[in-house]
Amino acid sequence: MARAQRETEEPQDAPSQALTPLSPPVQPPEEPRPPLVGRLSEVAGGLPAVISTMKHAWGEMGPVRGTRLLLKVNQKDGFDCPGCAWPDPGHRSVAEFCENGAKAVAEEGTKERVTPDFFRQWSVADLCAQSDYWLGKQGRLTHPMVLREGATHYTPISWDEAFALVAEELQALPTPDAACFYTSGRTSNEAAFLYQLFVRQFGTNNLPDCSNMCHESSGTALNETLGIGKGTVTLEDFDQAEAIFVIGQNPGTNHPRMLTTLQAAARRGCEIVSINPLPETGLNRFKHPQEVFQLLGSGTALNTQFLQVRINGDVALLQGLGKALLEREAEQPGTVVARSFVEDKTLGFEAYAENLRAVRWEDVVERSGVPREQILAAADLLARSERTIFCWAMGLTQHRNAVANIQEIVNLTLLRGSVGKPGAGVCPVRGHSNVQGDRTMGIWERPKAAFLDSLAREFAFEPPRHHGLDVVDTIHGMHAGRVQVFFALGGNFLSATPDTELTARALRRTRLTVHVSTKLNRAHLVHGRRALILPCLGRTEHDVQAGGPQFVTVENSMGVVHATRGAVAPASEHLLSEPMIVARLAAAVLGERSKVPWVSLVEDYDRVRELISKVIPGFEEFNRRVREPGGFSLPNGPREGRFTTASGKAHFTVHTMPREELEPGQLMMMTLRTHDQFNTTVYGLDDRYRGIRGGRRVVMMHPKDIAERGLAEGQVVDLTSHFQGEQRVARKFVVVPYNIPRRCAATYFPETNVLVPVDSYAEKSRTPASKSVVITVAPSVELAALVEGSTS
Ligand SMILES: Nc1nc2c(c(=O)[nH]1)N[C@H]1C(S)=C(S)[C@@H](COP(=O)(O)OP(=O)(O)OC[C@H]3O[C@@H](n4cnc5c(=O)[nH]c(N)nc54)[C@H](O)[C@@H]3O)O[C@H]1N2
Ligand SMILES: Nc1nc2c(c(=O)[nH]1)N[C@H]1C(S)=C(S)[C@@H](COP(=O)(O)OP(=O)(O)OC[C@H]3O[C@@H](n4cnc5c(=O)[nH]c(N)nc54)[C@H](O)[C@@H]3O)O[C@H]1N2
Ligand SMILES: [Mo]
């Protein structure tokens, strides 16, 4: 079997923590009952959203705490929603949250607790047998816990001893590069800034983060072409756009408040085009759950055009759009191409145009899967609209050619002169609520020289200049024994990363794994020789330090930096804030080596912000400006038509249309989020809009692809992925016929991360290609039969 084949690749010199058959499983267990499949929802929001909001909020937190917390979400004196990074409007309503934001708040605000008693009852092996949903439901972590070498259970440890333990392991390393420091995107600016400073003073740039798996492709693509790794629009631009393209994104589930913005745009006549392999409900019709009259009516129609692209058919489609625009320009010169913009502000137009002239329509249609008339209709809108915004998310960033996907969007934008003016621009819609801010604060394995120079100047030390490890490198590094300490500020590295089984073996080879977390997750259960869980305050909670009550800051998807203040008492008196954890750790590890007054800095977070304002451009007078209601916007050259590339111009780029790589019988699989999860956190077992309930192990397929394989609706199948001669298997998924293009399939993340090959990632950005997984589907083989088969 292919798994055995990978096993033999394991390096011989790695510390002996090899996976024995006795090691507990690393994937979530199968569900007891098959899911129920009903009809797709036609309308997003509405009464079901209100009911679900109340169920989660009151169910987890009780009516008093629940209502108190919800009324503080995204308010100017409240806390930033721990859900997505969609910005808040200037004028806030009393209830500035969505159904899924309420679930995120409830998940953190829950009344349940995971105490030392809980860990006494449950061994690590027993916890492994529980589902992700169950793990999350046990509640908030209350005490620092340690898993000592050879132990079966986590036991309590004091904070001092915990920091000393990390210091001891870090100091024993042959080189600082033998440690990796991961960050998930909920970490505040203050904690992130201190963390990267600590890591660089320790001596490494090994700062992999969730962004490596998320919008890294967007950052890479935009940096190269526009000179900034971020979007160029603000929320106000949506009020003026004439056309909005939503590509590879499911806002109804993942950015529900974006539907309010799209609804307002649609009501004033802005046209919305959705490009997606699936007819996602949120983009179809929307009833605002907080508009009482809306709850009963039929909702607002949102998209005017839906282009049902094949998985990874976007380069073909976007090139088709460009080709159509150039053909119109040839017919009526001077009407489509923004000549003066292209001449004054850009480079490379001729090469781009020449490439598109050579592109054949047959290839565009075949590889995109979208009929030519539909492409022409969308091009017609692009040609008419003077103000177009392009939004996208994971449907574009998680493919081998992800950077090309995004740069083809940039090409269209430049061709139409649709950037650097109101109502127009590019909008990568960020995931985690502060993932963008963490990057701004220096959480990056490939920091720019200018940033390191500022650190060096302000803190009088020589930061490491060589690039550090990203997520993919970190997995390989641990697996090869080169990385021996893994530290995570938030997140769930085991379940979020590709190649779950390999990542598990990698983590199990380390000397120490440490997780700063709010909730229990599978990454705590697949550990190094020793392991620590360090429980921290959540964003919803009061943060009081020696200098009094504190607030922290975050940056939303559109570059607005603002304050966030907790609204309720901490889940346990033993929790520390993230900035405090980082500061005490830094003091314990660096000791006399560091001149930074770590612990006194975090007595008052203004002191941390003072340092940020000295190091990071755009944060001048940080403490004053962040106290203004709504915060402040970071500078953004391209937004003002100033391109910050080396040439000072925006760049057109030329890309080869990717080829279809499927062999007969194979499908292209994308891994998606349900309506009931936040990444690896599972809130419930329903995907309401897609009509799938009570289970997550499903594979959505075109009815003809099901029939062609002799399969039937509801049948239990095994999925096998194929990559460079390697195979990976995930068992027991239920077949669901779905409105999806031929030879495409969809499953849920993280259950199918086991199928994503670690070395299948985007060119340049190295983002795992978790939306381009080549699979075959076959009737499930019972384990017994399998063993028989392999011994015969
Ligand atoms: N409630 C909730 N909110 C979230 C999250 C969550 O898990 N739950 N996660 C947060 C995070 S970290 C992120 S990054 C975002 C993720 O937000 P999304 O990117 O919306 O999340 P996905 O579920 O990965 O959905 C990808 C979408 O792209 C489409 N797609 C897949 N492949 C292709 C393709 O090849 N081409 C095109 N055109 N479309 C494609 C899919 O059909 C799907 O609609 O959401 C954030 N917000
Ligand atoms: N196959 C596949 N894989 C994917 C994706 C995909 O679409 N398909 N998406 C990728 C994307 S876009 C992303 S962003 C990554 C997400 O990767 P991660 O960010 O690593 O994962 P999360 O599930 O968001 O992390 C959840 C955990 O964070 C902890 N946590 C929550 N709040 C806090 C807090 O305030 N502080 C601290 N310290 N901890 C907290 C909790 O313990 C919780 O269990 O996954 C990636 N993986
Ligand atoms: Mo993300």
From TrEMBL:
Molybdopterin oxidoreductase domain mapped to chain residues: 140-514
Needed co-factor(s): [4Fe-4S] cluster; Mo-bis(molybdopterin guanine dinucleotide)
GO molecular function, one term: formate dehydrogenase (NAD+) activity
Residues annotated as domain Molybdopterin dinucleotide-binding: 667-773
Keywords: 4Fe-4S, Iron, Iron-sulfur, Metal-binding, Molybdenum, Oxidoreductase
Pfam families in alphabetical order: Molybdopterin, Molydop_binding
Region of interest (Disordered), ranges: 1-36
A cellular-component GO term for this protein: membrane
GO biological process: cellular respiration
PANTHER family according to UniProt: PROTEIN YDEP, RESPIRATORY NITRATE REDUCTASE
Record NCBIfam families: Fdhalpha-like
Family, per entry: Belongs to the prokaryotic molybdopterin-containing oxidoreductase family.
Protein name: Oxidoreductase alpha (Molybdopterin) subunit
Native species: Myxococcus stipitatus (strain DSM 14675 / JCM 12634 / Mx s8)
